[in-house]
Amino acid sequence: xxxxxxxxxxxxxVRAAGLGSPRPTTLREAIGAVGPIRLDLTTYLCPxxxxxxxxxxxxxxxxxxxxxxxxxxxxxEIAGNLQRAERYALHRAQMEAWPGEPATPxxxxxxxxxxANRAAAEEILQTLRSEGPLPPKELEVSFPxxxxxxxxxxxxxxxxxxxxxxxxxxxxxxxxxxRQRVWDLAERVFPEVxxxxxxxxxxxxxxxxxxxxxxxxxxxxxxxxxxxxxxxxVMIQGVRGRWRVDPAPLEEPSFRGRTALLSPFDPFVLDxxxxxxxxxxxxxxxxxxxxxxxxxxxxxxxxxxGDALIGTADLEADHAHGVLEVHSLRPSTDWAPSVTxxxxxxxxxxxxxxxxxxxxxxx
Length: 363
Known about the structure:
Number of helices: 13
Shape: globular
Order of helices and strands: EHHEHHEEHHHHEEHEEEHEHHEEEHE
Distance between the termini: 48 Å
Radius of gyration: 22 Å
């Protein structure tokens, strides 16, 4: 079995994510390096998908181009992630088999709830067919059995039914108006594709996941969500257990790094176990942490420099006053002057993308 150094593993991960140098040159290339992008729309800085793609493209990124891909259905929303439309073929078999066999306890409970409200589901589909796309608030439907949960989704029967109909491939998010999802029949949102058989689709999704991660755990409680048996099994010096690696990056030329500010929802940092094991980072998103207990900041951005995570940038966009607030730049280790200059250059570049001036000059 091949054994990699920790530095090799880090560099494989950085290259695979499109965060090395040179940068991707087109939006499609950047999307290919990222894979599915979580659609968190927190506007503390800008919608996360924009930040994720700017981290790859820098000054080349134009948010209007991303909007155009969505408008023309080249990018679609599946399970809360922005994905290339053709990937629908890898999800269709799973949707058609919902709640699955065997079903998880949650899916089985939700399937029973949908069946108890079959008439309501049909009414939603009929309304969307004749009047869609529509936001949930315009779907006035009576539910014999209202949705019940531990509290978070109580009294949200329409939204929960739309999500279950999406799980089984009958409806889909057409677009968003601000933070609000607007729904339509899936056949009017997704392209006409043949479903890839379930086992093959799972393998292809795992291959795609490994391709953009470069190196990942196969499975287990300390990975999210794992890549199964695709790729090559390797060990990493000083890191417990076995990993799976995409063989392609092993043969790539010498590593060239750069500096990047990353969204808290960037696929590169979402697997916190992987982040800790490979990059010795205990970064956490602290939006829901009381202010007095925060270590990094409300929406702090991890900072990548070369093959290391070197700190965080706590930034805030104040569009009302046209400024980008720099609350703090927190090094995890001392920065050399050249590193400081590179971080400052990325902060200024982000300000230009957001069309904001820095509130104070960086020192």
